[in-house]
Write a structure and sequence with these properties.
Distance between the termini: 35 Å
Number of strands: 7
CATH superfamily of the largest domain: NAD(P)-binding Rossmann-like Domain
CATH architecture of the largest domain: 3-Layer(aba) Sandwich
Largest sheet: 7 strands, mixed
Bound molecules: NADP nicotinamide-adenine-dinucleotide phosphate
Helix content: 40-55%
Oligomer: single chain
Radius of gyration: 21 Å
Shape: elongated
CATH class of the largest domain: Alpha Beta
Number of domains: 2
Strand content: 5-15%
CATH topology of the largest domain: Rossmann fold
């Protein structure tokens, strides 16, 4: 990978990808970043040895890949400022709720890929759903795949609509699990453990269960049933959750996330 990559927005998600690229051996001199906040530019300089720019300019004309990591609310305004320099480039957007149709129109460029990563990308343990517009070549897809693989696993999707489902499952998913972790830590503390002990037990349990689910050929339902002997302690806990219909509550929450993605599209992505 000797081509130039420009990041529009140098916040959390951009930093996760930049960190992965540099770890892979990409020279910082091949990476440009447009980031208006001086403090964030300083962090990018000191962490990665980059020379970020405060605003878009001619330097973007030499970018082969432009990675969009700005909030959906400002995407259009920033796109119009960047468009004059980047119609020739391949574009990769990680912004939630901004459709590739709009991105292609704002940028005057059809080579657009959308990715939906999640926060474990920050430590290289994320998973991204990806969708490519028809004009994106298989070589383009390979390149985007190499870039996003620095943040974790990849799942290419045949239809852009499915990205909203990806948001509901894995994009927002880490927060659901943190929420469950909060509850388990609070419960453990109420039962007499120190907060540190309850936290340690909870986090190790999530990691262990996740690794077990990944290593096993069985579905989570089977893994759960195996540790739920009738009349036992886990049985009592699961029965209590089923009385409260916890799975339905969680699925409702996922629909709320997907609905919000659709609202973001209506508010910021469709004009
Ligand atoms: N974080 C996640 O887990 C996650 C997951 C999936 C997708 N995403 C998507 O990734 C995108 C970025 O999220 P993030 O968490 O990385 O947000 P973030 O940390 O707030 O980063 C966005 C960056 O864009 C900068 N920016 C603002 N105006 C700009 C402009 N005119 N030109 C260039 N850059 C500008 C912001 O600077 P200021 O600080 O000055 O505003 C900020 O540094 C969002 O669209 C989000 O939907 C994030």
């Amino acid at each position: 990978m000797n081509q130039r990559i420009a990041f529009i927005g140098g916040g959390n998600m951009a930093s996760a990808i930049i960190g992965g690229l540099i770890k892979q051996g990409i020279s910082p001199s091949l990476i440009d970043v447009v980031e208006p906040l001086a403090e964030t530019r300083d962090t990018l300089k000191s962490c990665f040895g980059l020379q970020p720019h405060a605003e878009a300019g001619d330097f973007l004309s030499s970018s082969d890949l432009v990675i969009w990591a700005v909030k959906p609310q400002i995407f259009k305004q920033v796109a119009l400022a960047v468009a004059p320099y980047t119609a020739h480039a391949l574009h990769l957007s990680v912004a939630a709720g901004i459709p590739s149709d709009s991105i292609a129109r704002w940028l005057g460029c059809e080579r657009v890929v959308r990715a939906m990563p999640n926060t474990p990308a920050l430590i290289g343990k994320g998973i991204s759903g990806l969708f490519a517009r028809p004009a994106v070549t298989s070589a383009d897809k390979d390149w985007v795949g190499q870039v996003m693989a620095t943040t974790g696993e990849l799942l290419w999707l045949p239809s852009e609509d499915l990205l909203d489902a990806v948001i509901a499952v894995s994009g927002s998913g880490p927060a659901y699990l943190f929420y469950l972790m909060e509850a388990m830590t609070t419960g453990g503390t109420e039962m007499g453990l120190s907060r540190e002990q309850a936290h340690q037990l909870t986090v190790a349990t999530f990691i262990g269960a996740g690794e077990l689910a990944k290593a096993s050929s069985e579905q989570p339902k089977v893994l759960r049933q195996r540790v739920t002997s009738p009349g036992g302690t886990t049985f009592a806990a699961i029965a209590s959750m089923e009385d409260d219909d916890m799975q339905a509550l969680l699925i409702n929450a996922m629909y709320a996330a997907r609905q919000r993605a659709a609202e973001l599209t209506a508010e910021f992505g469709s004009t």
